Amino acid sequence: MNQEQKTLVFTPTPAAPAPIAATGVIHWLRKNLFSSWTNSILTVLCIALLAKGIPPLISWAFIDAVWTGGPEMCTNDGGACWAFIGAKYRILLVGTYPPDLIWRPIASGLLFVGVIAATVSGCCKNRYLIGLWPLLFVIALWLIGGGAGLAEVDQSMWGGLMLSLGLAAVGILLSIPFGILLALGRQSKMVGISTPCIGFIELIRGVPLITILFMASVMMPLFLPEDMQINNLLRVQIGIILFSSAYIAEVVRGGLQAVSSGQTDAAKALGLSKWMVTLFIVLPQALRHVLPALIGRCIALFKDTSLVIIVGLLDFLGMAKAASQDQVWLGHDAEGYAFCAVMYWCICFGMSRYGRSLEKRGPKKNN
Amino acid sequence: MSLTSDLKNQLPVILIQTLVIGVVIYVALQLFYNTQANLEARNIASGFDFMSVEGGLPINDTLLPYEPADTYGYAFLMGALNTIFVSIIAIVLSTILGVIVGCARVSTNWLVAKLGAVYVEILRNIPLLLTLFFCYSVVLVSLPHPRESLVPFEDIFINNRGIFLPRPEFQDGMTWVFVALAVAIAGSIFLFRKSKQLRDATGKGLHTGWISLALCVGLPGLAFLMTGQPITFDMPVLKGFNFKGGMVLRPEFSALLIGLIMYTAAFIGENVRSGIQSVDKGQLDAAKALGLKPSLVMRKVILPQTLRVCIPATTNDYASLVKNSSLAVAIGYPDMVSVGGTIIGQNDQAIEIIGLWMAVYLTINLIISLSMNWFNSKVQVVER
Amino acid sequence: MESQKVVIDVKGLNKWYGDFHVLKNIDLQVRKGERIVICGPSGSGKSTLIRCMNRLEHHQEGTIIVDGTELTGNLKGLEKIRKEVGMVFQNFNLFPHMTVLENLTLAPIWVRKMPKKEAEKIAMHYLGRVRIAEQAKKYPGQLSGGQQQRVAIARALCMNPNILLFDEPTSALDPEMIKEVLDVMIELAEENMTMVCVTHEMGFARTVADRVIFMDYGEIVEQNSPEEFFSNPQYDRTKLFLSQILQH
Asked: Under an 8 Å CB criterion, which residues of A touch C?
């Protein structure tokens, strides 16, 4: 037996580059588009579909389109009439708001964008953001509505994208605290509290938003005493808040259930009272957990505000429909709806990207 | 001693509950009194008597025969039936489309996967109402006047009043054709059973798919010919500015159906996609290592596990679809909200109508929940 | 040892994941009845190597010939090979929506086209072999890890394979369950089943293996009989690895 056997040193073989056939364009095409007979047929079908559909769309939307000019420039056949949007963009964005006071919605819009940038970029601490958003709304309300120094603009003149965003934003902002209360109430061990909460949540979630809007718009005047009538916009806003809070309550309930009971045990062991445990330990973790789902609710609510046209409010979509009825510019609903679609898509897609990035960042971060 | 200390502990709890319930009852009573006063002041009737009053509402799209001379109650029923009808068809078709979209999104074909992703991202980020307006104005605007209808096949006319089709009228002999169809279906079921028994016994089954297809087409077809082709068609005929006779799919109905299907399919597609992706990759490995063909792997291993994951989310989507059908009011399809809204416009009895809406929607919701829960419990994976 | 037939013949095997060269010039022959243990640090490519043997992974260069059939993209050849080669996975990969019995009979019925009764007979036989016959009607979710892995072994055996591949079969098990699975594997080895086993269980290697192969950086560093391998490792890498593995 060789006791003094020398240990050999192992030098790994240097890595060789992958063969051309394993990387590069040809390989990618073969792997992703033509890997089997079925796949090849599907690829060909898809390309045929795209070839049939995309060129006419591009020629309608861009090549043959009319970008500026008056209604006489746009004939009904041929390209899109973006001049229509150019003429109507003001009412599409702010409704019948007095044109000379338009700097006020613009100012609110800029503030809005600013606060969104602050939230998304994560530059400011959470506690500031929680105070910043309500502040934004008070200021925006003052700027748009008037009073206390500014000329008043009646709510019947508010419309367009401004109205959609306003309804959605106020709806979310006020339905979150209400929804949290409902969720906590639903979890309560006291039957007297949990039953009305469960009843409310299940009732609202079981019926379409339209019925709630009808309730708010048509039934609420009957519920209130004669001298306490409120305007239509406020009624619809209340309806939206009630509707959204039921859904937020369910989302928060999921979050509350996800917080492990070990947390409450530890907090109680430290001597915190039940309310303090809920407020300082359970709720923050629950909310952090369901932040992406809450963003999802924001997106859904923003889309749902388009329904207010049915109860007589002219929001973004409503304005697009109304504008297309203009006698001078008849027959251009497609352009109006296309403009709406692009704006809605950008806003909703942006929000869903933000939600996805929050999901990826994980429940930690913040503060 | 312990009794009083127990009571002392329970007191705050009891007090709070009493307070909450007291407030709820107080508010409810206030609302009730206000409502009564307001209704009186505005001369609005109460109660459901109006349901038996002749309505005079024109509804041009009903499942059962309807005349404007029918009562409000019957009109409302037509609306409710329309809601249910549209919902059922939309649920079935959007499930099929949703499964296709979901499978497309996980396809190994890059182009197919990307197209699926584009479809889902577009439809999920645009309000359904906008999609409906799009479908409706696209359907309406680009279709020609009845006098210049498109005629893709003989006796089928497409124009801006709808799709006019010949209406089949069944004569006496048709009963035999239906009997033949029933026999064919029964025969197919029997065939599937026999094939399974055969496979259990010998390992080789029959080509049940093709044989049962041949049966279901051939047997009724034979009966049809032998009874002298007992179908006549009521053809749509252009009279003046419109078509008379035949049956029609109105643009409102088509637009609502297409919009609902495309929108809901995007959501169901996402459920299917996350279901398929949630199946562990190791399951694929094990199935492949055992030598199972790809189609068998899908059928026996992947899809059953996908189904179990998808069901809760899809139940939600079905419930949403039924609620979304209420958007019919915006494009003029006479569903329950549409008809109810018209009734409110006529007699101001909003409370009763809204109450009816809620009752019907909650019942439908409950039925969907219960059925899907039953289905779910049947397919759950048994755990420790 | 009499010269047995070569059942797995790997020549010049090279595999890349994208640009990463994961298997470099592997040459390996496995004879019928041989028990091979492959060990090495994580990332050395050992799992990739045996997954190439039943084409769960594709190779870009070189040839793999299993039981006389070359592994290429050809589907017919692939079907033939997968019937003869069974695999046991680290995470068991039992089908959770089927009972234990259905897990075992799925492939015999649908791939070997066996009648159901015959498939069930064979399944019960193998369930008895791995000493778990009483769990036939249970679902995998109701079994412990060790029981599930034994079911997985029985499932592979039901196809009557000539070769069994094991990909770290005990790595996901709690320590007290490792022995029951290793006992089954030792019994199989003693019945002269051709086995290629990626594992860290050196005791198993010492007891049962005909050859131990050490891999690192995608290559075979050295291979030897267990006695030689454990007492006289040739390379520094091997010595380092053994010192780490045999600590506890």
From this structure: 5, 7-10, 12-13, 15-19, 21-23
Q: Do A221 and B38 touch (CB under 8 A)?
A: yes
- Over residues B222-234, mean pLDDT: 78
Query: Buried b / exposed e across A199-238, counting CB within 10 Å, b at 16+?
Result: ebbbebbbbbbbbbbbbbbbbbbbbbeeeeeeebbebbbb
Same domain as B324, residue B220: no
- Is A60 buried (19+), middle (13-18) or exposed (0-12) by CB count in 10 A? middle
Q: What is the pLDDT along chain A (367 residues), one digit of tens a residue?
A: 444 467 788 888 888 887 766 667 777 787 778 777 788 888 899 999 999 888 888 888 888 788 877 777 776 666 788 888 888 888 888 888 888 888 888 888 888 888 888 887 777 777 777 788 888 888 888 888 877 777 888 888 888 898 999 999 999 989 999 999 999 999 888 888 888 899 999 999 999 999 999 999 888 888 887 777 788 899 999 999 999 999 999 999 988 888 888 888 888 888 888 888 888 888 888 888 888 889 999 999 999 999 999 998 999 999 998 888 887 777 778 888 999 999 999 999 999 998 888 877 765 544 4
Q: Does the beta-carbon distance from B285 to C116 stay under 8 Å?
A: no
Q: Which chain A residues contact residue B160 at CB under 8 A?
A: none
Look at B282 and C89 and tell me if their CB atoms are within 8 Å.
yes
A352/B125 CB distance under 8 A: yes
Are residues B373 and B258 part of one domain?
yes
Using CB atoms, pick whichever of C87, C114, C139 lies closest to residue B289: C87
**A207/B34 CB distance under 8 A:** no
C-alpha distances out from residue A239 to A229, A245, C32, Å: 15, 10, 77
B311 is a domain residue: yes
Per-residue DSSP letters for B83-152? HHHHHHHHHHHHHHHHHHHHHHHT-S-HHHHHHHHHHHHHHHTS-HHHHHHHHHHHHHHHSPPGGG-B-S
B326 and chain A in contact, CB less than 8 A: yes
Q: In degrees, to the nearest 5, what angle opens at C-alpha A208 toward C-alphas A313 and B340?
A: 75
Residues of chain A neighbouring B138 (CB-CB closer than 8 A): 334
Number of domains in chain B: 3
The residue of chain C nearest to residue B284, with distances taken between CA atoms, is C93
Q: How far apart are CA B169 and CA A53, in angstroms?
A: 39
The whole-number average pLDDT for the span C162-171 is: 94
Give yes or no: residues B209 and B330 share one domain.
Answer: no
Q: Which residues does chain A have within 8 Å of residue C233's beta carbon, measured at their own beta carbons? A: 7
All partners of chain B with 3 or more CB pairs under 8 angstroms: A, C
Contact A13 C25 (CB under 8 A): yes
Same domain, B221 and B267: no
Structural domain containing residue B18: 2-42
Domains of chain A are: 83-98+153-365 (1.10.3720.10)
Same domain? For B88 and B206 the reply is no
**In this predicted structure, what is the pLDDT of residue B383?**
60
Residues B265 and B364 in one domain: yes
